[in-house]
Amino acid sequence: MEDGIFITIEGPEGAGKSTIIKMLADQLAEEGISVMLTREPGGIEIAEQIRTIILNPANTAMDARTEALLYAAARRQHLVEKVKPALEEGKIVLCDRFIDSSLAYQGHARGLGIEEVYNINQFAIGHMMPQLTLYFDIDPEEGLKRISNHKGREINRLDMETIEFHCKVREGYYLLMERFSERFKSIDASAPLEEVFQNASEEIKAAVSKWRK
Ligand code: TYD
User: 52: domain CATH number?
Assistant: First the structure.
């Protein structure tokens, strides 16, 4: 059996991650590659319950460390119930957001420290780091404009943050790109959809031939 490959997709709000990730999964499936598309918390009941608490706009009193711990807890549950079994079956796992979201949002933008948040996530995920991370880069103002034009999208507690917060998130991702340069690939998400998709698709193909040579 072929080895599973763990790929994560990251980026600020409105970068178009969820549209592109679906196109990527469809393309792989059409090529006969066994793929699992998921997102945190990815339909895992316990993790969904945790997510409801984190993203509830009424929970304005939530402490930043509580938020980081809850994301790590939801991540752990999703990983053991869904991601690990799929990798063990040899699938390519495409996961919309993972540890780097916590490092950029809680570690850098909330100011908890990337190192501290990395440490609690190590407890949650052990050695299960992604082999490839596609980072969809977009100016936060442009991204937020896109989601406000996207009718029907729920507005969650993090969307309600200030533009400064979202700029810090992007800055956090830039720091991660330097730190994890071997697995991070940045993609310009302000380009037309088809171009973003093509660029992302090439990175995935390169990863597949690297890990399955
Ligand atoms: P979601 O509706 O999934 O947003 P998106 O479509 O942008 O991925 O909401 C997830 C929100 O939670 C989003 O604002 C990013 C934030 N988040 C963190 O702050 N830390 C994390 O570890 C994760 C996974 C998400």
Answer: 3.40.50.300
